[in-house]
Amino acid sequence: MVKLKRIYESILRETDDYRGKDLLVVDIQPIYESGFNHWLGEFVEFLNENYESFKSLTFYYNGDETVGTISKSDYQIWWHTNDLNEEITNEAKFYDKGYAFFRYCMDEDIDNEDISNLVRMMVEFNINDSRELDKSFWDTYIKRYGSEDVRELVEFSDDCIHIPDLMDDLKNYNNIVICGGGENECLKEVNIALDALNKNYKVLNKFVYY
Fold it and tell me: What is the pLDDT of residues 140-169, one digit of tens each?
């Protein structure tokens, strides 16, 4: 009886960890399945058991509208074939987010905080393309944040970072739990965007792929 009580209390604590929170699932989709197939069944079970505890569930994916891959309907079918409850796919939000918004800086090993600071200022000044940033903007950025690395990389480059429509969607969420991947690719881009928006979030590391 004592053991069963402890198991029950543990389940309640875990459920309370998610209650009222917004769950964001990033790129857990067929094209990347080799990265997470070892825990996909466990993740589906997790969603089936905990879905009602979350305030909302959003699947962010790379789809046919942005990069020409999977359609929303085929993506939903894929979840069904992996035993996700149909109620969940009917009620959850699916958002075709695209990718590579900040990859130029990421691939050049610019510090994540420096990238998020730049993105935050671009949003503040309503500038969507880093090639449009002028000397005044950069001087203000350096005065605020002090780091020259991102300026040296971006200021006179033909490559750029841009502010995606995803940023507007992320503004809708608070008290966030996020999972998916890849850890240093699309998941990192979403995390940088959340940091730029000053959103608090918790990474569900158990369900992150690399």
Answer: 999 999 989 999 999 999 999 999 999 999
Q: Are 60 and 26 contacting, i.e. CB atoms less than 8 angstroms apart?
A: yes
Is the pLDDT at 13 greater than 50, yes or no?
Answer: no
Integer Cα distance of 165 and 152 in angstroms: 26
The pair of three-digit structure tokens given for residue 42, joined into one six-digit string: 């466990």
pTM (predicted TM-score):
0.90
Task: Provide DSSP, 4-27.
Answer: HHHHHHHHHHHHHHHTTPEEEEES
Pick the CATH number of 22-101+170-208 from 3.40.50.850, 3.40.50.2300, 3.20.20.80, 3.40.50.2000: 3.40.50.850
